UniProtKB/TrEMBL annotation:
It holds the Pfam family EF-hand_7. Keywords: Calcium. Residues 20-55, 69-104 form the EF-hand domain. This is EF-hand domain-containing protein. It comes from Eucalyptus globulus (Tasmanian blue gum).
Length: 142
């Protein structure tokens, strides 16, 4: 486990890197589409959020949250993702909502860096953002 410093610009650079961001989001979508029907169902999306740890870190939910409340929360997230109300989230909807969420995180972080503990194989998008920044810094060195 390593400690990394992350701020809004790290996240914004990741979202702004069309190729990297799209690749990360598309990979995640494919991994989450468990029955491979090309869309995310309510339960697939719920699993997504459980695995991404976005809920704990970004929605401020702690482990003591009652199950009914969590279900309500996941329902409201699903409805946000399912922009056209079709009952399933397609890749376009997933991309656009992930972009909004990451930008909201960036705004939340602002220019005030926070220290985060990340596992080397951490699957979160924040880890991707940090890796991308690190690789760019690496390239900039003589
Ligand atoms: Ca599916």
């Amino acid at each position: 486990m390593g400690m990394v410093i992350i701020d809004g610009s790290t996240v914004r650079a990741f979202v702004g890197d069309e190729e990297q961001f799209k690749k990360s989001v598309d990979e995640r979508f494919a991994a989450l589409d468990l029955n491979r029907d090309g869309v995310l169902s309510r339960s697939e999306l719920r699993k997504a959020f459980e695995s991404m740890r976005l809920i704990e870190s970004d929605y401020g939910v702690d482990v003591a949250t009652p199950p009914q409340e969590l279900t309500r929360l996941y329902d409201s997230i699903f409805e946000r993702f399912d922009g056209d109300g079709s009952g399933a989230v397609d890749l376009e909807e997933f991309r656009s909502e992930m972009r909004k969420i990451m930008l909201a995180i960036a705004d939340g972080l602002g220019s005030c860096p926070i220290q985060m503990a990340l596992e080397e194989d951490d699957p979160s998008f924040l880890k991707r953002a940090v890796d991308l920044e690190a690789s760019k810094l690496g390239e900039a060195k003589p």
